[in-house]
Structures are given as structure tokens and as C-alpha cells.
Design a protein that fits this description.
alpha/beta; 4-stranded parallel beta sheet; 39% helix; globular
Length: 112
């Protein structure tokens, strides 16, 4: 029996991330969806439970713009014995405006 792939999608509870998660669900991989908002994660998990009942979906509420969040996520996966096979690094947000007027701390959060 082939190994089930573990597919981690950051920002996977809405928008492009959710659509990518839907495509990956068609491959029968285990979805690990990481996002900032619990309500969006619950909605996504309900969708996958209804439309893809044979796949496992793990949801993790985490704000990846926080400095140590990525390290915490790695530790959570390592502790759970989950090796990530596919990473869709989609988490983010948009800022706009003139470079010299954009809030530098907000830009730094996005880079995180």
C-alpha cells in the first residue's frame, strides 16, 4: 500500500490556499491546514469532511506572522511524528501604498 502524502498548506482555510487544498484533497493526501482564524479553519474542515470523507484533515490555528510560530509548527509536526511531504507556503497578507509610507513593522510581519 502506498504511503499517504502529508500536505501542509499555510493560509489553507480561504482564498488561493483553500483552492489548492481542494486540489490536493483529490490526491487523497492528508491535509494539514494552518491558518490564523479558527472559524475559517472549522469551515474548511467541514467542507473537506463532507466532500472528501476518506481523507484526514488536521487543522492548526497559528498566526505565522509571529516570530516563533514557524518553529512551533515544525515542533508540533515533529512531536506528532508527521513528516511533511508537500508544503504550500501560501500564508500572507497584502499591504499597499508608497514604499516610504508603508508601516515597516507591518512589512516585517508579512516577511515572517
Amino acid at each position: 500500500m502506498p504511503k499517504t502524502l502529508n500536505c501542509l498548506i499555510t493560509g489553507g482555510s480561504s482564498g488561493i490556499g483553500l483552492e489548492i487544498a481542494k486540489l490536493l484533497a483529490q490526491t487523497s493526501c492528508r491535509l494539514i491546514i494552518v491558518a490564523k482564524f479558527a472559524d475559517e479553519l472549522q469551515t474548511a474542515q467541514s467542507y473537506f469532511t463532507q466532500h472528501y470523507p476518506k481523507i484526514e484533515v488536521i487543522i492548526i490555528k497559528k498566526d505565522l506572522s509571529l516570530k516563533k510560530a514557524a518553529f512551533e509548527l515544525y515542533e508540533e509536526m515533529h512531536t506528532a511524528g508527521i513528516q511533511i511531504d508537500v508544503l504550500v507556503n501560501n500564508a500572507g497578507f497584502a499591504t499597499y501604498g508608497y514604499f516610504n509610507q508603508i508601516d515597516l513593522l507591518r512589512e516585517y510581519d508579512m516577511i515572517q
